[in-house]
Design a protein that fits this description.
Blueprint: H1 20-29, H2 34-56, H3 63-71, H4 77-80, H5 87-97, H6 101-108, H7 125-134, E1 136-137, E2 140-141, H8 144-155, H9 159-180
Helix pairs in contact: 2-3, 2-7, 3-6, 3-7, 5-6, 7-9, 8-9
């Protein structure tokens, strides 16, 4: 998958995306459980906050793609509960069938990032969404250490599973460093999304800006 972008973030070529109301219809149509829906909204808030900061720093990122991908990243999860099916791939397949190819790629990569993606940019939308998901435990923004401790407790039932989780933790830590290095911010700044932890003098702007405004009107 290749998204065509111009040099500046303000000149990113438009891509097809569902409207906000269409996203809610998809969530309902695929029976997303309330707890998964609430988690998805929180991931969207984190991804939007980080995406805006990166775009302001000059990175060419499609902000509506980030917000939409974060909201729909677990579209296939409810249907996969209790099975061995890959919920990221199912969600991507659903979106591909609807013609949202770029969005499907972001959803497909929200658990594990693909290698060798044909995209020359230093940062991709899928990386922002992947990281944002790793920072949200249920509906609460947490550190990577807390998130992966929970993953080990819930899913580390075998030595092989523990190895996979540990490898993912290392990759996500590397991704965190990549995302934050050009911003000069601490990952702890994202905790303010919870509304319960505010960093004194944080460079993240605390506002009531709604990521939904990024969607085109129906």
């Amino acid at each position: 998958m290749k998204i065509i972008h111009n040099a500046r973030a303000s000149e990113i070529a438009p891509i097809p995306l569902p409207t906000y109301s269409a996203c809610l219809a998809l969530i309902a149509a695929h029976g997303m459980l309330p707890n998964i829906r609430e988690h998805s909204f929180r991931v969207m808030q984190v991804a939007d906050r980080l995406g805006r900061a990166l775009a302001a720093a000059g990175f060419a990122l499609h902000l509506p793609l980030i917000s939409t991908g974060a909201l729909l990243h677990d579209l296939g999860k409810t249907a996969c509960l209790g099975t061995t099916n890959n919920h990221a791939h199912l969600g991507a397949d659903i979106l591909t069938s609807l013609g949202y190819v770029e969005l499907a790629q972001v959803v497909r990569e929200h658990v594990r990032l693909d290698d060798g993606v044909d995209d020359p940019r230093p940062l991709r939308e899928a990386e922002v969404v992947n990281y944002a998901d790793k920072r949200v435990l249920h509906t609460r923004v947490v550190t990577l250490a807390e998130r992966f401790a929970d993953l080990k407790e819930r899913y580390g039932r075998t030595p092989e599973a523990l190895v996979r989780i540990a490898a993912m933790a290392v990759k996500t830590q590397t991704l965190e460093e990549k995302l934050f290095a050009p911003l000069g911010l601490s990952p702890l700044d994202l905790l303010q999304v919870n509304g319960e932890f505010k960093v004194q003098g944080s460079k993240f702007k605390v506002s009531t800006t709604d990521p939904f405004e990024l969607w085109q009107k129906p």
